[in-house]
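Quick one: structure for this chain?
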Amino acid sequence: MKAIPIALFILFFIKGFSQTGYFPPTSGTDWETLPPNTLNWCPEKIDLLNTFLDENNTKAFILLKDGKIVIESYFDDHTMADPWYWASAGKTITAFMTGIAQQEGFLSIDEPTSTYLGTGWTNCSTADEFAITIENQLTMTSGLNDGVADPTCTDSSCLECIATAGTRWGYHNAPYTLLDQVIEEATGSTLNNYTTQKLKIPTGMNGMFIAVENNKVYFSNARSMARFGLLMLNNGNWDGNQLLTDSDFFNQMTTPSQALNEAYGYLWWLNGTATYMLPGLQSVFNGPLFPLAPADTYAAMGKDGQFLNVVPSENMVWIRMGEDSGTLPVPFLLNDQIWEYINDLECELSGNDLIKESIKITPNPSSSFIHIEA
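Got it. Here's what it folds into:
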């Protein structure tokens, strides 16, 4: 029984001290790079990764280590400047902006959603509707029916209560989409304006939320997604500017938010949990969400394989933008397949390298004596 809290303590300790030390300028295209050979990554294995990405309809791939670009690849005539959709990966921006709105006193996630949307925003009884909170929207536990004909429909007639809020996890776009309206009603600003002032300007991100049918989808270039990942890697801090000062909200956003789906925080997907659930299903699966990724990885995930992976223990961020690979029944599997190639990037050590790796000399340098450990 003691292993679980110790493991969680180690995980939180790693996350709390994952400062990169480097941030790119907020304007221009300058961004320091880290040569792959300094990580002992083989060019031919990077080529294999790029080939796999290209064959699976990728548009852009960026991998950051210590905040610096190690790999940046574009495919199918896509360029550094071209915008692309985040799909549901953009939900994580909305989660971040909810945290900003709370720390500025505009709302509390414990409040009923009805505080900002009024009564009758669902087709539920008054009591059931009032039980739905902003936190339920963040955690996909609204109790609203995600199995309706159009789960993106935000009309009250489409929002049916099938469970008490907080007792059922169901991936449902409509309650999430209404978070946009909650933020706008609470702050008195449009979501795009609020995001620009509180997130984009401080970090140098570009992009905006655009209405696509019933959804609001974030579009930006690939480096902007990487910038957001770097901000998250540093616990909401950008080069000394603490954008999200509410550390409790940040921790709740990136750790299990409820017991129903351990692999879900506040609109972020979490690795390293004992079980997980997937969109459209009520089944609980055993094992971590991404078996090949480090346990402390958390990710923004979107339709057709829009991925943002944040790995505090590795001080790493990587993003993938693109179209549906067309080869996987569950797009989440593509994320793990990319991890398989990342895990194999290191070159094999020669005999001399193995000797160097197996000997530790301390202190180094030394003016008097040394200790050799083999």
